[in-house]
Amino acid sequence: MAFLSDRLARVKPSPTIAMTTRAAELRAQGRDIIGLSAGEPDFDTPAHIRDAAKAAIDAGHTRYTAVDGTPSLKRAIVAKFARENGLDYHPGQITVGTGGKQILFNAFMATLDEGDEVIVPAPYWVSYPDMVVLAGGRPVTVACGQDQGFRLTAEALRDAITPRTKWLILNSPSNPSGAGYDRDQMRALTDVLLDHPQVRVLTDDIYEHLVFDDFRFCTPAEVEPRLKDRVLTMNGVSKSYAMTGWRIGYGAGPEDLIRAMAKVQSQSTSNPCSVSQYAAEAALNGPQDYIRDSRAVFQRRRDLVVAGLNACPGLDCPVPQGAFYVYPSMAGLIGRRSAGGALIDGDEAFANALLDETGVAVVFGAAFGLSPHFRISYATSDAVLADAVARIRAFCEGCN
After folding, report:
1. Could you tell me the residue range of the domain that residue 352 belongs to?
2. In whole angstroms, how far apart are CA 332 and each of 158, 178, 316, 335, 372?
3. Fewer CB atoms < 10 Å away: N or C end of the chain?
4. Quick one: 296 and 273 in the same domain?
5. Long-range contacts for 140-149 (Cβ within 8 Å, ≥24 apart)?
6. Which residues cross the membrane (predicted)?
């Protein structure tokens, strides 16, 4: 009898964490490394949020809370959905977890039986398929190429649905591509879903506030209210308020699902950090200037990176609508050799050679289910990004 489960053998370690770890190891060896693999804002958490956390500690709010969130935080989340998305929830339809990832994982653990299918548009966040597998389900990936703007089409969704389909995952704006669905594109998908009442929608809205130019964010339950009882809307404070380490995510959905997810959480982590919950409440209820200011910075960085990469021989970088990632194609370099002699036979070889020869860490596209691309996070300073783009250009120019 094997000690480790067969299910675990089907799960891959996170490639983004693996690349970040490898970059850290090289840096520890004295190498000059630029890490563009982690999706983490480089700003400090806003002062009023940090002050709320300190006040919570001083007030003694350091004990267990309700399993899936304090009543006051749930009320703040209800108010956020009403204010920003036009969605009407009550606290019994809200759950709070240790980051957005736990909300997704709880939902899958609470709903998936062996063989249930989950439609995952590719490119996807690396954790989606493996969370489905851990819960006993089967991820059904649907390729959404650059020619489609990295978006799922209504026709592709219709073709992917089977009698075993239980969930569709949507992420807009997307990690890794930054692609977002406008209202017409979202409406086309919700129209298909109305014809398939067994399919639920798990929408990952974590990058809701990081949108650029004239793009306007929308979420499925807002676009099609008739789907509201079939939608779990996940969001959190990590990206919008530079609170990645505070580990607070939340979700809104039908009450029976929320209760089931709380049961899963009660037997795993129990409540999220009490102090972090008070900080998240301050983030949602407090001034929102930080979002506007950080969005302007990220848009400037996006434009810097897109222009720089499109000046690199062999690369083609679309302009994303949101998040803080670009997902350029490196198809023009396939079959060439780097200046250091590495054969560039795909995006993984490209990423490895780029790190070895220039010290720039990116994540290869196969990790996100769609090649030949790679992901860059531009959640770092303009000076670092300019240096990284210059190194990437020199690398591309050296390929022959």
Report:
1. 6-44+290-397
2. 33, 21, 8, 9, 9
3. N
4. no
5. 140/165, 141/369, 143/369, 143/370, 144/370, 145/370, 146/316, 146/318, 146/329, 146/373, 149/179, 149/318
6. none
Kindly state the tokens that stand for 34: 């630029």
56 part of a folded domain: no
State residue 274's pLDDT score: 98
Who's near 389: CB < 8 A, 6+ residues apart? 304, 305, 308, 309, 312
Tokens 């102090």 -> residue: 275
**Single pTM value for the model:** 0.96
Instruction: Please indicate, yes or no, whether residues 244 and 280 belong to a single structural domain of this protein.
Output: yes
**∠ CA 269-270-274 to the nearest 5 degrees?**
105
Last residue of a domain, one of 285, 305, 334: 285
| Residue showing tokens 């991820």 | 139
The CATH number of the domain holding residue 325 is 3.90.1150.10
Rounded to whole angstroms, what are the CA distances from 276 to 47, 63, 78, 232, 383? 14, 12, 18, 23, 32
Structural domains of the chain, count: 2
Q: In the prediction, which pLDDT does 13 show?
A: 75
- pLDDT at position 246: 98
pLDDT value of position 346: 97
List the structure tokens of 295.
């969005």
Q: Is the pLDDT of residue 10 over 90?
A: no
In tens, the pLDDT along 153-195 reads: 999 999 999 999 999 999 999 999 999 999 999 999 999 999 9
pLDDT in tens, 212-222: 999 999 999 99
Residue 316 lies in a domain: yes
